[in-house]
Amino acid sequence: MSKHFFGDTAVLLGRSLSHITRSVDTIVTTAIMPIAMMLMFVYVFGGAINTESVSYVNYLLPGILLITVASGIAYTAFRLFMDMKGGIFERFQSMPIARSSVLWAHVLTSLVANLISLVVVVLVALLMGFRSGAGVLAWLAVAGILILFTLALTWIAVIPGLTAKSVDGASAFSYPLIFLPFLSSAFVPTDTMPGPLRVFAEHQPVTSIVNAIRNLFSQQPVGTDIWIALAWCVGILIVAYVFAMNTYRRKIS
């Protein structure tokens, strides 16, 4: 790794963030779909779903936050694809900069943009009646889980961003990720699901992440869910990072 890695990444991060500031509608658009889903489920379906003593907006919010991230990372793949097609990477290769800093700038831009979208969604949830007595440490734990989740999915997004043949192909990978929370405990308790679907829902990563965030918000014991959630996030992050960096090296070699 170049000794100038951090400086190079900071400069390139500034470049990527300037694109975001000139296109604020990107962040707004990313937040609109999760907010629309939250409005629909709370006010249309919420009354028919039994979440016991927990208000449905409180029950639903963790899953909506994950959907926000899953929809937001499509823009990372799109921006990478456009840079690849525009020849920006070839131009950077001719300059004395750390090669990996190009990818890290895109990843950190995704993190910043998604965090802003998440804040917007939480603010709307508060207007809809979301309440939490969680303390600072619990909120920091939720933020940490969401940051890890965002980084993991962003490194997944890097792969199609580097390898896709079209703009549609670069962002289409995010659709299954957006759909995954529907097959988890995000919208309904898993014990209401039929056998095979229930088994899948209880053992896929989104359920443990949703349950950990929900328990942190409600000041309930998190049990093993938080460790399973962290294991999933870190495991996906490491595997995606290795694949993404190998793909990048092949592309620029």
Automatic annotation (TrEMBL):
Transmembrane regions:
24-45, 57-81, 102-130, 136-158, 226-244
Using the record's annotation, list all stretches that form the ABC transmembrane type-2 domain: 25-251
- Family annotation (InterPro entries): ABC2_TM, ABC2_TM_bact-type, ABC_2_transport, Nod_factor_ABC_transporter
Q: Which residues form the signal peptide?
A: none
* Recorded GO MF terms: ABC-type transporter activity
Which Gene Ontology BP annotations are present? response to antibiotic
Major site of localization recorded for this protein = membrane
Q: Which GO terms describe its cellular component?
A: ATP-binding cassette (ABC) transporter complex
What keywords is this UniProt entry annotated with?
Antibiotic resistance, Cell membrane, Membrane, Transmembrane, Transmembrane helix, Transport
Family of this protein: Belongs to the ABC-2 integral membrane protein family.
Q: What name does the UniProt record give this protein?
A: Transport permease protein
Give the organism, scientific name: Nonomuraea polychroma
